[in-house]
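**User:** Everyone, produce a chain:

**Assistant:**
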Amino acid sequence: MDASVAHGPFIRGLVFSGALLHGCEALRNQLQLLLWGGLRVAELRSPDQTSEPGAVPSGVDILQLSDSNTWEPVLKAWAEGHGLQLPGEVVVLASGAGDAEVLPGFTANAGQDAPWPRLRLALAHANLLRAATLGSAGASGTSGRKRAREEVEEDVGPAAVADSAASAGSSGTARGSELVVVGYAMKASREADLAKEGLLNLVPQDGVVFAPLDLSQPLESQLPFHCILHKASDELEYGPPSPPAAAAAAGESAVPTAGRGVGGEGAASASSTGDDGGASGGGAGLLVPRFGPRVRAMAEFVSQQGGRVSLLDPLQSTAKVINRTELGRVCDSLSQVALQGAVGGAGVVVRAPRNVTIASYEPQQLEAALKQLGCSAPFIVKPVVACGTPDSHAMALALWPQALGGLAGRVPLPAVVQEFVNHDATIYKVYVAGNKVVFHTVRPSIPNVPHTRPAAEALVASGVLTFDSLKSLPTKLPSDASPAASAASAAVPAAAAAAAPAATSFTPSQEVLELLAAHLRAALGLSLFGFDVVVRTVEEDEEQKEATEPHAAKPRELVVVDVNYFPSYRGAKGAPALFRTAVLGAHRAQVPG
């Protein structure tokens, strides 16, 4: 992109009057997000003004006026101290300290009636206007700059209009500009998590700036923006499956009425979920997880923009990870990934866990489903809906087949019964942005579980261990105080109980993780996602066989046990830059040029 766009005088500082700041809750609620977005924020206080401690975040600078000084030298000293150009890079919203409407809808006398929820969107629009002006400066001179400003003002709305960006034009493009405005739609807690990590910069960087969109308001009134970044799984609902064409258009992925395991179709059927978490009918009454009406309206809006606005990621792609049955089908293709030529890939294979979808915990249906599954206990049982609902993370570990019957009302139906793979209580969480594995981390996981029923009963008498995977995995197994239980507990490796890899364990290499990420990226059509992978434990009998029959040694198995859309990237070094690159790359793939 043009270097002038990267280093031009964008808005980097905001100054508010104390009276405005403390009289407007909608403004105060955004202060921390403004700071996390990379802006310098200051409060200009009159001599007689004070505030309660903690009324504003600690990052807000307090500019206290005295009877003997005026605001001009105070603002100048503050701006110079932070390397800001005044007035070019600083917007002042304080009575008597500013007058021009630099932001659409906001003036120095802005009060409670100003559209404060759109402040950050107005910032993006103002910076887009500046980028357009800068983009034509070198080649076009004064007349070119004027024309570029006029063109973008057609999109943003005339600067004199005090009705905010709501009066913006209908075109989502920004001619003459290489700044991409990414509007995002997600719940407030997720926005805060991402902003805290520096992922939602409000000051243009690398040709990208972010701003929140309000899905409760017409998106046409919030133009111009070039891309919508969403966490559509925040707004899921249950509903009947749509016809195939309509389902594809809405990004809907239905649970098939036939269960499935690795390698074929089965007879287990899916069904709707009753209030008690039990099945309320057979396959004919199927309810599937699907995106809510606001999300579907968002996708429809994008489809009507003539290829000028991108959607990250497309609903057809994100639908694959909200439905664990569909996700399992896609992940079955992991067995096709060839790792032999990669660093750390020799003697290593990858696969998904075997799984089958069930509609009932009735013995006959469970028997048919387990026959289709084709593997022995233990099993992990998960709701088909993977996220976005209160019970989507209600799971259970069933230590023997008969224990599955005790899950009625505990794990909602339809559910996925998945092979549980012992993995020395170690899980690798991998975070992907675009074509890069941003980072991976090692986390504690479920300890190894005995495969024999007597040993399993000694650990968990009921054979069932329920947990909420969103809060934490059961990194320790309960046991009775009996000597048998103690012996069984002792059989669980100490390294597993501590959730640390054993000294002899295999660790997947970065190159292997990159290959897995590339395959999932292509199979799912996602640019922002994470996945969990474990290394299957080599059981004692397998070790003994390998020691006596080296030719019988099996490959080391990596098992991808979960995929999620748009993780937080919390704690990743260099994540903001990689995230911007990924968003920009995915946008340009949909909107070339």
About this structure: DSSP finds 19 helices and 22 strands in the chain. The chain has a mean pLDDT of 80. The first strand starts at residue 13 and ends at 17.
